[in-house]
Design a protein that fits this description.
Blueprint lengths: L1 E4 L2 H4 L2 H16 L8 E5 L6 E4 L9 H7 L4 H11 L4
Antiparallel strand pairs: 1-3, 2-3
């Protein structure tokens, strides 16, 4: 799975929330071989989020991810487990 968790400073911006909600709606409507299906999302949560299936490809690596998120990997995994049921 791939998780997009909106940073708290952006979650308070109405314009950003509206764009993110449109992104979630659009992502749920598209499909194809190179499109990751939406597993779940909550654009109205206090900290909006989107979970899609993971499509393997080149990764920019941990330093890039760390620069964009305040979550540590254990914290991100705990957050994910608390919101997405495993089958």
């Amino acid at each position: 799975m791939a998780v997009k968790l909106i940073r708290s400073e952006l979650a308070g911006e109405d314009d950003f929330r509206a764009r993110f909600a449109r992104e979630v709606r659009a992502a749920r409507q598209v499909s194809g071989a190179f499109t990751a299906p939406v597993i779940d999302a909550d654009p109205d949560a206090p900290q909006p989020w989107l979970v899609t299936a993971y499509i393997e490809g080149p990764s920019p690596g941990v330093p890039f991810l760390a620069s964009w998120s305040s979550l540590t990997m254990p914290a991100a995994m705990a957050w994910l487990r608390s919101r997405v049921p495993c089958k």
